[in-house]
């Protein structure tokens, strides 16, 4: 079976897709929690953290698009 399927490359693709897929979804959910409000004292920190999380998500999307379109 290894003549037809490169298992090392398959594991790398599986790991990258799990990290990117589940990881970006988790970071996006943290951004939503930060934007949801909460205490008045922590609202500015929550929005700043949410902004940082959304930048990470946008960067992940940009990298994904670059990888897909570059090849």
Automatic annotation (TrEMBL):
It comes from the Bacteria. Keywords: Membrane, Transmembrane, Transmembrane helix. The chain crosses the membrane at residues 13-36, 48-69. This is Major facilitator superfamily (MFS) profile domain-containing protein.
């Amino acid at each position: 079976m290894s003549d037809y399927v490169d298992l090392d490359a398959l594991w790398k693709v599986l790991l990258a897709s799990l990290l990117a897929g589940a990881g970006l979804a988790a970071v996006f959910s943290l951004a939503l929690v930060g934007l949801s409000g909460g205490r008045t004292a922590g609202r500015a920190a929550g929005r700043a953290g949410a902004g940082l999380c959304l930048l990470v998500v946008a960067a992940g999307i940009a990298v994904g698009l670059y990888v897909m379109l570059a090849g």
